[in-house]
UniProtKB/TrEMBL annotation:
Stored PANTHER family: ALPHA-METHYLACYL-COA RACEMASE, SUCCINYL-COA--D-CITRAMALATE COA-TRANSFERASE
Molecular function in Gene Ontology: transferase activity
Segments crossing the lipid bilayer: none
Protein name listed in UniProt: CoA transferase
InterPro entries, sorted: CoA-transferase_III, CoA-Trfase_fam_III, CoA-Trfase_III_dom3_sf, CoA-Trfase_III_dom_1_sf
Keywords, sorted A to Z: Transferase
Xref: Gene3D superfamilies: Crotonobetainyl-coa:carnitine coa-transferase, domain 1, formyl-coa transferase, domain 3
Length: 383
């Protein structure tokens, strides 16, 4: 673990469920904070019901205590923990914490320096604040599918939970800033993080471009025929990341012997390729579909061209670069433990340890609340 960070000695209460709240807390734990996971006694975090590995993904290294926040005694314990902690993360629907008697005003009364982060789908106010939803609902609300990204675009489900991950990242960043501010000023604050707002920060420029230029892909400069995913003859896929003219010229030199039309003068500049995007897209797709992925690898690998094969799962785990970077660790319990994806020049954080059993650290946490030492993180990290 880091010898010292701005989060060393910081205690974060994680009242989150499923994905964004627990992930934000997990990232703070990776960077040195001690995270206490507060769970329902009847089953704990809903992610536990989705399987041990799903729960472990965002909860390794945390301490667990089970509290029924509808019971006065357990609410008092939570208030006591808030009084000694630096941040609290919750992702209930707006109004739930207030109804429990645990809104920001109450928490701030017991600890003026506490930072509370409320993560919700649509925010703490606004017409949609009370709506239920999950990741894809917030993507739709943020206009994720409003702007095409390919010449022949389709609306399809993303492969990862984009709004959940996006929101967790913004939450973690905002929490670090707010905790550092509270350390200086002695005053905490309430952070209102909407998952739709977080995604909107990414999608709004594309939506604006669409509104200003029209609805046809011909008018959208970010929709490029040579920066796309292509299907190969054996049903595999490869990616071309062509953007600068120098990369197109290098690609054209390689492909022109196979398809002389790609050497045409109108394709030599990005503006020319955009002006002829449908024609160029059709030619590239037809050519790439004529050979297998292995055949294309033999042609493209020796060249300085930004291309990538789309790997199968087992191929990705065996990839030399993935292994060399060491991001993915195989934990002693058989699950994956992902390291924090930024390397610090001082010392990189080790794997995060095991996921806690429900209420595993109750005695130690209550001992800390009574003035004792904070218990260690959930088991020692594997080497």
């Amino acid at each position: 673990m880091f010898a010292s960070t701005c989060l060393s000695g910081r205690v974060v209460l994680d009242l989150g469920q499923l994905h964004p709240g627990p992930q934000a807390a997990f990232m703070l734990g990776q960077l040195g904070a001690t995270v206490i996971k507060v769970e329902r006694p009847d089953g704990g975090d809903a992610a536990r019901a989705l399987g041990a590995e799903t729960f472990a993904k965002y909860n390794r290294g945390k301490l667990s205590i089970a509290l029924d926040l509808k019971r006065p005694g357990d609410r008092e314990i939570l208030l006591g923990l808030a009084g000694r902690s630096h941040a609290l993360i919750e992702n209930f629907r707006p109004g739930v914490m207030e109804r429990l008697g645990l809104g920001y005003a109450r928490l701030s009364a017991v600890n003026p320096a506490l930072v509370m982060c409320s993560i919700s789908g649509y925010g703490q106010d606004g017409p949609y604040a009370g709506r239920p939803g999950h990741d894809m609902n917030f993507l739709a609300g943020a206009g994720y599918w409003a702007v095409p990204s390919q010449v022949e675009d389709v609306v399809a489900r993303p492969r990862v939970r984009l709004s959940d991950y996006c929101g967790a990242m913004y939450a973690a960043l905002a929490l670090v800033v707010a905790m550092m501010t509270a350390r200086e000023s002695g005053r905490g604050q309430h952070l209102d993080l909407s998952l739709q707002d977080a995604m909107t920060a990414w999608t709004a420029p594309g939506i604006d471009a669409l509104v200003r230029t029209g609805t046809d892909v011909e008018d959208l400069d970010h929709v490029m025929p040579d920066n796309d995913v292509f299907r190969t003859a054996d049903g595999r896929h490869l990616v071309l990341g062509i953007l600068e003219d120098k990369f197109w010229l290098a690609l054209a030199d390689v492909l022109a012997p196979l398809c002389p039309a790609l050497a045409a003068a109108e394709y030599r500049t990005r503006r020319g390729r955009l002006a002829n995007k449908r024609e160029l897209s059709s030619r590239l797709k037809g050519l790439i579909a004529s050979r297998t992925l292995a055949q294309w690898a033999a042609v493209l690998d020796p060249e300085a061209i930004p291309w990538s094969p789309v790997p199968l799962p087992h191929e990705w785990f065996d990839d030399a670069h993935v292994r060399a970077r060491g991001m993915v660790q195989r934990h002693s319990d058989g699950g994956l433990d992902l390291r924090f994806p930024v390397r610090f020049s001082g010392q990189w954080a080790p794997p995060s340890g095991t996921a806690p059993a429900l209420d595993q650290h109750r005695a130690g946490i209550l001992g800390w609340l009574a003035g004792g030492a904070m218990p260690g993180k959930a088991d020692a990290p594997c080497s």
